[in-house]
Specification:
Chain lengths: 283, 278
């Protein structure tokens, strides 16, 4: 088991309830997409899984440890094994691309090597390799403020590829990219997961992208899980139920009806109602 | 969104607290002006104006004798050395304290995780230390050190190091706090240490601001050395003190011109460093 969330609830400091009783078990090497309307708690769930947010209730175990029971130094090591792709890449504009990518291994490097790398990059070949997988190798020595938003987003993804984590968490990793690049970027993260055996959990806004790449789909709405099913069993009714508050149009990457075509094959009987997941141990 | 309990009100809920704050500000400011005997119109009384004019008339022409210029050069170099050495020492004091105090570099606050109270205690101790360092004016320190080390710039250097260390540390921490802290947070969440999060996450965004504040403090240290010169800590201040006591306005104005040049120098230096880091 690579990631196990057990009856997780989270209330933000301002009293807003972000997650209620979410339970999720992800095997090592499994690839899973979380979809749902905006404000559903996808980001919060990803941040809880990565040890960035501490749940108010419930238990989390990832990479065989409960992060909140670890000592400070063990928690630091635990965090360095998890790679996070952020929705907005958290990269200072004055940093050079090569440095921004190399920052992926800061958790693994000693302070001496890391600081020396600010003066002369420690692993130019490694950074170039990660960038070339996202078609950005030519921007290696440019400053990040010279890049477009989409390019910067890909630098953020390259940082995680370079980090080579055991658990890849991605929070709407491709929302700043056009459909072709988004597809390629998710493909690269997927390839990294396949090659290294890393577990890959991504929240995605585009339903077609999730269905195309991920074998397992979790639907979230209003801080709770609505369904958790293999991609092949996702029906149009489930999706419409999930996005009921956002109108009748499903959010897709390319506005490409073909991408959703497989859904018609498993179209359920008319009037079928999605049964919310049973929540053992939750009130 | 889950549990949207009540609708947002129609009026801006912050309007009343804001108006109250402005009102309190005005009410507090008035007695302050009274207490400080702030009566600018007194300046323009005929008698006062004449006294000031006579005082200032003594300042022209500036003294240009080669003897005095030699003294001036020596005193200027002494002042520059005092200010530079003082700032360098202050820098050494300020860096670790600012680093300890910067909340956005706290790892234990994420979650919050283990070691939270230790971190909190450390930050409070660093903050208290910085308050202590800058609470006592540098002139007082200079008076103390002149007694211990004798007349000369060494006392000024120590006095500057202590007070300016406190100021630099406080403002460094505030600059780091007010720049974009998300990159550092993301690095800490990925297992990076504090020093590396500073180098990769905070400094790239804050370096310009930090450098220009440091140069500005150096400029202040040059000026502060005048006041300290009055109590015997050497440099341009001591020279100024002697000229004023001998009622030699010409010498005083030459010294002031030198100050003007030093400030211009600091300005150019700051602009150059900012361009370099841009």
């Amino acid at each position: 088991m690579s990631l196990s969330l057990d009856a997780i609830g989270l209330t933000h400091a301002n009293g807003q309830r972000a997650l209620q009783c979410v339970s999720l078990a992800v095997d090592a090497g499994e690839r899973l997409a979380i979809i749902g309307p905006s404000g559903a708690g996808k980001t919060t769930l990803i941040r809880v899984a990565g040890g960035s947010l501490r749940p108010s209730e419930g238990r989390i175990e990832a990479l065989s440890a409960n992060p909140w029971q670890l000592s400070a130094s063990a928690l630091k090591r635990w965090r360095s094994r998890i790679g996070m792709v952020h929705q907005a890449p958290p990269i200072p504009p004055r940093l050079r691309v090569v440095t921004a990518v190399l920052a992926g291994r800061l958790g693994a490097w000693g302070a001496g090597k890391a600081l020396a790398s600010l003066i002369y990059p420690a692993d130019i070949a490694g950074a170039r390799d990660a960038l070339s997988r996202l078609d950005l190798a030519d921007r290696l020595f440019d400053r990040c403020d010279r890049l477009s938003g989409g390019q910067l987003q890909r630098v953020g993804i390259a940082r995680v590829l370079y980090q080579a984590p055991e658990l890849i968490l991605a929070d709407e990793p491709v929302s700043a990219l056009d459909p072709t690049l988004a597809d390629a970027a998710v493909g690269q993260l997927m390839a990294q997961s396949v090659a290294s055996g890393a577990t890959f959990v991504a929240s995605l806004h585009a339903v077609d992208l999730a269905l195309k790449w991920f074998p397992r789909i979790v639907g979230m709405r209003e801080g709770a899980m609505l369904f958790d099913a293999p991609a092949s069993e996702i029906t149009r009714a489930m999706l419409h139920e999930l996005y009921a508050t956002e109108g009748s149009v499903l959010p897709t990457q390319g506005n490409d009806p073909v991408a959703l075509a497989p859904l018609t094959r498993v179209f359920p009987a008319a009037g079928a109602k999605v049964v919310p997941l049973a929540r053992p141990g939750c009130r | 969104m889950n549990g949207s309990v009540a609708l947002a009100p129609d009026r801006d809920p912050r309007a009343r607290p804001r108006a109250t704050a402005v009102l309190i500000g005005i009410v507090l400011l008035w007695p302050v002006l009274q207490l400080s005997e702030f009566k600018p119109w007194v300046l323009f009384d005929a008698g006062n104006a004449r006294v000031m004019a006579n005082f200032l008339a003594g300042f022209v022409p500036p003294a240009t004798s080669s003897d005095f210029l030699g003294l001036l050069l020596k005193a200027t170099l002494e002042t520059l050395a005092m200010a530079t050495a003082g700032i360098a020492l202050a820098f050494v004091i300020a860096i670790p304290l600012a680093f300890a105090m910067t909340y956005s570099l706290s790892i234990s606050r994420i979650g919050p995780g283990p070691g939270r109270w230790r971190g909190e205690a450390l930050r409070t101790a660093a903050r208290a230390m910085l308050v202590l360092l800058r609470a006592i004016p540098e002139v007082v320190w200079a008076l103390v050190f002149v007694r211990a080390l004798g007349l000369g710039p060494a006392a000024g250097v120590l006095a500057l190091a202590i007070t300016y260390g406190g100021m630099l540390g406080k403002v460094y921490a505030e600059i780091l706090e007010s720049s974009d802290t998300r990159p550092a947070r993301a690095l800490l969440e990925a297992g990076s240490g504090r020093i590396t999060a500073l180098g990769y996450g905070l400094l790239p965004g804050a370096a310009q601001e930090l450098v220009s504040y440091t140069v500005y403090r150096w400029e202040c240290a040059v000026r502060a050395s005048v006041v300290m010169g009055f109590v015997g800590a050497g440099g341009l201040g001591q020279l100024m003190d002697q000229s004023m006591k001998m009622l030699n306005g010409g010498e005083a104005s030459t010294i002031l011109l030198m100050f003007l040049m030093l400030v211009l120098l600091a300005d150019a230096l700051s602009a150059m460093l900012r361009r370099l880091l841009a």
